[in-house]
Each structure stands twice: as structure tokens, then as C-alpha cells.
Amino acid sequence: MPRAVLRGLRGLRVRLAAACLLVAMFAALTTAALTYREARGAMLQRAQDSTVHAVRDRVQTVAPSTPFPPDQAALERIAALVDPRTRNDHWAVAVVFRDLWATTNRDFEPSRIPTELRDTVTGRTATAFQRVHRNGRVLLAVGVPIAFSGPGRTTASGVEVYVMTPMQTQVQEEAALVRAARNGAIPAVLAALVLALIVAGGVLRPVRALQRATRRLARGRLDTRLQVKGGDELAELAQDFNHTAAALEEHDARLRRLEARARAFAADVSHELRTPLAAMTAVTDVLDEDAAAEHLDPDTAAALRLISSETGKLTRLVDDLMEISRFDARAAALHVDELDMAEAVRRCLAARGWRDAVVTRLPEGIRAEVDPRRLDVVVANLVGNALRHGAPPVEVALAAERRADGDWVVLTVADRGPGLAAETLDRVFERFFKADAARSRSSGSGLGMAITLENVRLHDGLIRAANRPDGGAEFTVELPRHARVGAEGREDG
Known about the structure:
It catalyses: ATP + protein L-histidine = ADP + protein N-phospho-L-histidine. Pfam families: HAMP, HATPase_c, HisKA. It is found in: Cell membrane. Residues 201-253 form the HAMP domain. One of its GO terms (biological process) is osmosensory signaling via phosphorelay pathway. It is a single chain. By secondary structure, this protein is of the alpha+beta class. The protein folds into 4 domains: 1-64 and 169-212, no CATH class; 66-166, Beta-Lactamase, CATH 3.30.450; 234-328, Helix Hairpins (Orthogonal Bundle), CATH 1.10.287; 333-491, Heat Shock Protein 90. Helices cover 52% and strands 19% of the residues. It has 10 helices and 14 strands. It has helices at residues 3-9, 12-62, 72-82, 115-121, 168-218, 233-291, 298-328, 341-351, 372-389, 448-458; strands spanning 92-97, 100-103, 128-134, 137-150, 153-166, 333-334, 337-340, 358-361, 367-370, 394-403, 406-414, 462-467, 473-480, 490-491. Helix 2 packs antiparallel against helix 5 (168-218), helix 6 (233-291) packs antiparallel against helix 7 and helix 8 crosses helix 9 (372-389). The radius of gyration is 53 Å and the shape is rod-shaped.
């Protein structure tokens, strides 16, 4: 069964409708059952009373003319008088006196009289009756003893009259009663189903509105609000949602303002530092020459070299901050050119003197439309990071892949160092993050990996970090071979 169908069957609408339907069915069936039981009991009681009274009246009419002791002819006469054919063709009458008996129906011999009924009637003066089931039919058997009335007492004569009559009419009435109860319950259940669906729809309408609003809120639409109707619990829930959304929108706006101020501050500071740093860099070039002179004492030369080194670090930090500020301001432009990827990687390594420190697997003929400057930044940051924090050999590999969504270039940079701790894999591209616990202490700004990530994203590419099974960290960059923008460039965004 499809997953959507299963989810629909488990939905709140189906459960509410099923619950209402079950309650309605239980109420309808209970009402029908109680009505049927009471009506059936009253109907059967009325039929039994009517038959018993009729039999007793007929016997009392015949009793005064009964001779004692009766002979066979007298018994036949009594049977005929109790059950005249002109009155009721459904009665079968049997009259018993000791070993004598007479009947109006050959199928109603004394052996056919229920034993319990005979035991109740014999030797008594009271009328008795019993319902009997035979051959799928319901019969009513009535026994009436003929008694002699004397001063102060009534004595049984020993003559017993038994009447057997079918209750077919009552059975038919009972079946009609069952049909009426069933026919009345079915429309009630169907009406309950319709009402249950209407009620479920009314309850679920605000729930679904809340679900849609929650999804919009999750997608960043913090201005989403619900229309509040009524004063029930669902209306209170809608009000709580609106208050929560308003608070989130306010917090988001405040955070955005703070973030914008922080970015503007970083950009302004970086810009203001560039001018004095340019002058300091020019001075450090002179100091480097003096540090190499033999007339300076060792302490002064070491101090000059330290000043030059720290000035270089500060310059790189300011440059990185300026680059990050351009990404944050969505002002980073992508200028695409078709390059031989292997040659571009070799130029990057040669420019930094890393050719002998890196093992390369760079197949020829892999060309891609990329920004040369930004590709150089990506390769330099990844290889420099591996050389500083990993262990040799550092490997750089290129590969071309054809996928359903187009042709891709895959650049892999791996080292044989201790690798990245599991808790740092998801944070390695965060700004100013340094995995001190997994790698040796870094002298960088902590922005290199963040800048690498932004440059890859600018190409609509992907980058991920992982640990190799045999040890060491591995960074994989995937870039589309054909630029998704024009060769003249674009603004990031």
C-alpha cells in the first residue's frame, strides 16, 4: 500500500471520523437491541397470554358436561369441543385420562407432549404452558387440568387437556421487528458518518492551517500569522502561534541588525587597517634587509624578523577579513574563464614552492569554466592547510565525472596526519574555528576554510571534509565543468 495512503489512514481526520462512527454505531445498536428485546418480550407475552386464556376458557366451557370417569367417546368429544375446526385450524388438542387419550391431530399423541409440561399439570389444578422448538418451528404447548369444584376445595379429576399451537405469526412479527431495527440503524449510522466527517473537517481546518503556517515559518517566513476565530482551545493555540511567530520575527530582526553591524565593523576596521599596514609592510621590507646585515647584534636582528613576520600575519588577516566582508556584502564577483585544470593546479603549487612537497595525480585534458583567481585561492588554502597541519605525503588529485545533473570536476587534497576529530568535521568550515585538539596549533586567521567554502559555493560547487580510512584528513571539492553563469561574471547571491 502506498505510503501516502497509509499516512492518510493514520491521519487525525480518519481517526476522528472513526471514533464518532463507532460511538454512533454503539448507540444505534444498543438502542435497537434494547428496543427489540422489550418489544419482543411484550409481543411474546401478549401472544402467550392470549392463547393460554383462550384454551382455559374453552376447557372451562366443556368441563361441566364432562362425565366421570370419562370413556373414550367422552375424551373425543372434549377434544372436538376444545378445538372446533371452525374456530382455529392451528390448534392440535389432546385429552388424556389415565391410559385413555384422544386427539384432533394424529401428530399430537401423548408421547409428543413435553414431559416437563405433563409433570407440571398432572395432579394439579393450575394451568401451565411451555414454548417448544421443533423442526425449526416455535410452538406453544398449554396444559389445563379439568377439576371438580366442591365446598371449600377444588379437586383434580385426572382429565388433562393439552393444546399445541404454532407461534409462526409471532416469529414473523419478530423477524419484521429485527428488519425494522436494522433498517433504522443503517440510516442512523450513515447520518452519523456524515456528521462525523463534517465535525472532523471543522476540527481539522484550523489544525491544517496551523500546519501550513508552521511550514512557512520553518522556511523563514517569520511574518506568517494565523486568523483567530472563536474562543476555544484551537483559537488559543492560534494566538500562541502568532505570539511565538512575532517573538521570533523580532529576535531575527535584532540578530540581523547585530550581524549587519558586526560585518560593517569588520569591513570598516579591515579597510582602515590597510593604509597603515601598507606603510608598515614597506618598513618591514627595509627591516628585513637590516636584519640580514652583519653589523646588527643577534637580539636586534631577531626582533626585526619577529616584527616582519607578525606584520605579514596581520596583513594576511586583514586581507582575509576584507574577502569575507565582500562575501557577506554579496559583492564577490565570479569572472569565469575556461582553464586546463591540471595546469592551473600546477601553477598554484609552483607559485608557492610546493611542487616538491606534494604528490599529484593530474590527468591532462580536464577543462572547466572557473574563476582562475578563486580556484587558485581554493587550491592554495587546501594544500597549505594540509602541509601545515597534516603529515607527508600530501596528495592532490583531479578527476572528471559525468552525472545525471551534468559534468563535474573533482579535486581531492589529502594528507597522512592525525586527521580531524569527529566533533570538528561539521565545524571545519566555520569562521575563526581551529581544530586545536586534532591538529597542531595554527598561526593562521581561522578564515581560510571559510573563504574556501564561499569560493566553492560561488561556483555552485560542493566541498566536504572527511577522514581517510587509513589515516589523515581529506578535502573534496566538486565543481561543475560548465559555468552556470555567463563568462562576464556575476554577483554572489
